[in-house]
Amino acid sequence: QSLSHEATNIQVTEVAQTEAVRAAHLRAKGEIVLNCRQRQYSCFVAEAQQTIQVHDVDLLAGEAQKATIRLVNVNDASPDEVALAGVPEGELIGELLGMDEQLKFVSLDEHQGRVIRDFAGKLLNLRHPEVREVLRVLPDVVGNPVRRALLQIYLDLEAYNLTRARMQIKELLTMQDLHERAQLQTGELLRQFLADELGPLFATSDAPHD
User: Half-sphere exposure of 130 toward its Cβ, with a 13 Å CA cutoff?
Assistant: First the structure.
């Protein structure tokens, strides 16, 4: 992707990390997953040796069309098809933090990284202990503008939203009443509501997975 930071354009190349997870999830759901590759054959045409290249997908596509079978690249499968949909609490977290669709909250045992690069975008992995530690304090962060800004900066850095992160840092540095704002707390009713809503997320993530 291309990032613009002030007058500087930065090209970032990310390698998707979920191809094996997608294939495993599709197989678990009963789908047929094939490993296709480019093949090369040598043959003689008019006594001259030639090389013919054939890709398995080209052959499969024709046969699948005849049999009205849907054939799609694993990388193009939708999040619903490969079970990489965000956790239900992710929408609430996104609304609280004013996040866009650049970062989705998922829980994947197969990966230990904080951010997982998927073909459909970036996934913030709730299985990572650092992410879990940060989000556990979310009920207290919401009502504190300083801690909330710090959390937004943390997430913006993961999503390469450098411009907004820099603006947030500058705002904190120049805030005249920083000390007073840092003392503000989330209301008791709101804190309890958020704790109740987010509690199942961590309970589910901590439970053993089959």
Answer: 9
**How would residue 204 be classed by pLDDT, with cut points 50, 70 and 90?**
low
Beta bridge partners, 139, equal none
Residue labelled with tokens 């008019």? 46
pLDDT in tens, 148-182: 899 889 888 887 788 888 999 999 999 999 999 99
3: closest CA among 164, 171, 168, 169? 164
Q: How many CA atoms lie within 13 A of 149 on its CB side?
A: 16
DSSP of the chain, one letter per residue? -EEEETTEEEE-------HHHHHHHHHHTT-------EEEEEEEETTEEEEEEEEHHHHHHHHHHHTT-----GGGS-TTTTT-PPPTHHHHHHHHHT--TTEEEE--TT---SEEEETTEEEEETTSHHHHHHHHTHHHHTT-HHHHHHHHHHHHHHTT-HHHHHHHHHHHHH-TTHHHHHT----HHHHHHHHHHHHHHHHHHHS---
List Cβ<8 Å contacts ≥24 apart for 129-132. 132/202, 132/205
DSSP codes, 38-60 = EEEEEEEETTEEEEEEEEHHHHH
β-bridge mates for residue 2, sequence order: 11
